[in-house]
């Protein structure tokens, strides 16, 4: 047995029997990274460290950006996060050692969490009730498209530095575009900036071709339509409010369990790609394609069956798919990939539905705070998921059983949450209290602030 430098993988191997595999592995996008920094077999423990650092950045970023976006605005934080990701990802190319590289990856993950949070909230708050599901579905499909493109880029650009540069460049362009995007009018009004909110609404009305709305929108109309919301927002609110108010406490705890289970199973499947087949690039593209189909179908499912039914059913089916893989012999790679792909598709439906549902369960003043808290819980699951995989050697059945069972069990908490299909976004806690009676009576209507942003 001999020890050699191995790109992206540390192993002890026989040089005669595995020489071909060596040449193949050294051609992966991670090969030059390990060769440059001397990551030999004795330092193979650094591989999960790099993954854990990235996930830790996601976890802390989700919590931090939820609070920062409420203090400084959604769009300004989106612009900053795009610039941070672009600079951190590009700088990683020139990292002199593994420690600096991990630090830059942490900053990259920290910014990515903010992009996900702020972009989702902006789209939700600028979209009417009728178009909200399709808007979030489109957003989810773009994520899956990125997964497929990443697989193709990794196959074409075998040098990891070239891959970093290719994935960093779009963020510079997105940063410039984000400077033109309008700030959330809901956030501007509840933070005492009605004049700027009026400017943003007229800007959106002009883009959408609603000339009559530009004339009808005045400060008096805005303040009268959002009078309760402004009064409610004057009270100082924090993360603790999610647990002080009974209706928010129950929703927060339920969604925390649901999102935690999603991320444990999702990242457990993603990081287990190499055990499903030899061509990891093809599997990455295949997972992205199935995820795309699942998310694209979410809009139709949400329209006809509502949020709770779709989310609970997708979780249960995804969990059963993962458990079914336990019964498949290792030699039946085709069937194993089929069950894994089905589970990944169900998780795609879960994530799209969850992004719509969680935004409809919290008031505007606490929406980003709740979103950041839930995302942090999810990122904690993303850290735990791959760690469970390390028990595979001692307990081979533990990882798939954990991923499958936790999805199925968490689906049973969803029937205790209210259905929000067809209801406008709540702006105050009182709106949450009135949702059930309003849904039964069918008396809710969109306020002028959301009607003017008709998609």
UniProtKB/TrEMBL annotation:
What's the protein's topology in the membrane? Multi-pass membrane protein
Q: What is the annotated localization of this protein?
A: Endomembrane system
Fetch the InterPro entries from UniProt: MFS_dom, MFS_sugar_transport-like, MFS_trans_sf
Chief place where the protein resides: membrane
The UniProt record lists the keyword Ligase: no
Q: Which residues cross the membrane?
A: 52-73, 80-100, 106-124, 136-156, 162-181, 248-269, 281-302, 309-328, 334-357, 401-417
Membrane in keyword set: yes
This protein's UniProt keywords = Membrane, Transmembrane, Transmembrane helix
Q: Which GO terms describe its cellular component?
A: endomembrane system; membrane
Could you tell me one molecular function GO term of this UniProt entry?
Answer: transmembrane transporter activity
Domain Major facilitator superfamily (MFS) profile residue range list: 1-421
Q: What is this protein called?
A: Solute carrier family 22 member 11
Source organism per entry reads Myotis brandtii (Brandt's bat)
């Amino acid at each position: 047995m001999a020890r050699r430098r191995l790109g992206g993988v540390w192993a002890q191997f026989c040089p005669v029997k595995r020489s071909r595999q060596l040449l193949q592995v050294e051609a992966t996008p991670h090969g030059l990274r390990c060769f440059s920094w001397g990551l030999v077999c004795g330092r193979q423990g650094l591989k999960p460290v790099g993954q854990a650092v990235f996930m830790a950045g996601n976890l802390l970023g989700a919590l931090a950006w939820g609070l920062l976006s409420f203090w400084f605005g959604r769009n300004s934080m989106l612009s900053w996060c795009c610039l941070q990701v672009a600079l951190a990802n590009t700088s990683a190319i020139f990292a002199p050692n593994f420690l600096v590289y991990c630090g830059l990856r942490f900053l990259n993950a920290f910014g990515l969490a903010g992009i996900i949070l702020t972009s989702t909230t902006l789209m939700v708050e600028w979209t009417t009730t009728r178009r909200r599901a399709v808007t979030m579905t489109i957003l989810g499909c773009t994520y899956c498209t990125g997964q497929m493109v990443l697989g193709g880029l990794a196959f074409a650009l075998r040098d990891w530095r070239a891959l970093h540069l290719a994935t960093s460049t779009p963020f510079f362009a997105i940063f410039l575009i984000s400077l033109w995007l309008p700030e959330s009018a809901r956030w501007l009004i509840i933070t005492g900036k009605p004049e700027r909110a009026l400017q943003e609404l007229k800007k959106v009305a002009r883009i959408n071709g609603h000339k009559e709305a530009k004339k009808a929108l005045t400060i008096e109309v805005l303040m009268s339509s959002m009078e309760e919301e402004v009064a409610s927002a004057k009270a100082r609110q924090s993360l603790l409010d999610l647990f002080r108010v009974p209706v928010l406490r129950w929703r927060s705890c339920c969604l925390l369990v649901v999102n935690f289970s999603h991320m444990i199973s999702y990242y457990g499947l993603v990081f287990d790609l190499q055990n499903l087949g030899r061509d990891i690039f093809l599997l990455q593209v295949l997972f992205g394609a199935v995820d795309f189909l699942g998310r694209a179908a979410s809009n139709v499912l949400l329209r006809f069956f509502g949020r709770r039914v779709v989310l609970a059913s997708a979780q249960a089916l995804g969990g059963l798919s993962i458990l079914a893989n336990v019964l498949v012999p290792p030699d039946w790679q085709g069937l194993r990939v089929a069950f894994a792909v089905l589970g990944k598709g169900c998780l795609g439906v879960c994530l799209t539905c969850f992004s719509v549902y969680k935004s409809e369960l919290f008031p505007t003043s606490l929406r980003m705070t709740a979103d950041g808290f839930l995302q942090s819980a999810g990122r904690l699951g993303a850290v735990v998921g791959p760690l469970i995989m390390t028990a595979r050697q001692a307990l081979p059945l533990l990882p798939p059983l954990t991923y499958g069972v936790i999805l199925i069990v968490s689906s049973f908490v969803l029937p205790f949450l209210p259905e929000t299909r067809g209801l406008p976004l709540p702006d105050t806690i009182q709106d949450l209290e009135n949702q059930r009676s309003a849904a039964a009576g069918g008396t809710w209507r969109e306020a002028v602030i959301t009607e003017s942003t008709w998609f």
